[in-house]
Write a structure and sequence with these properties.
138 residues; binds protoporphyrin IX containing FE; heme binding; metal ion binding
Amino acid sequence: MSTQPTEAESAFAALGGHETFRRLVARFYEGVRTDEVLAPMYPHDDWDGAEERLRLFLEQYWGGPTTYSDTRGHPRLRMRHVRFEVTPDARDRWLTHMRVAVDELDLAPEAEHVLWDYLVRAAHAMVNTPEPGRTPLI
Ligand code: HEM
């Protein structure tokens, strides 16, 4: 007996499923590896692992398999980023590489819009360090 997909499962399918996230994250890391600010933050002996962790997280977030939490536990993403200096500059660079990767997916406009909107909001939420040289207002 088949069951109806949940709303989240349909979102994963509507975005193109595993193949979309594989391509998205692979292209994203191509950019990150060339980025003078971001590249030094990543484990250079484990680029493949970093790529896999981000892909599994995004697949799970969009309603795909729950392998991320099954293997890594609760995402707690802000906590997992505390050891990195995520400045507004790092965020903008992260988003720049994501933008290139999203563009190359050639998704339908509505699917692209929801994916991009999420990535922008998530990236803004990850900032944990003010720009060097700027005094925080509070
Ligand atoms: C805003 C700028 C960001 C920077 C500079 C950044 C940087 C990093 C770095 C250096 C790592 C370690 C790589 C690894 O070994 O896995 C990491 C891990 C990770 N990041 Fe980010 N990140 C950013 C935003 C985001 C956003 C917006 C998301 C989610 C949409 C995200 C999801 C993840 C995930 C899932 C991991 C692996 C966590 C784990 O299981 O250990 N990151 N990030």
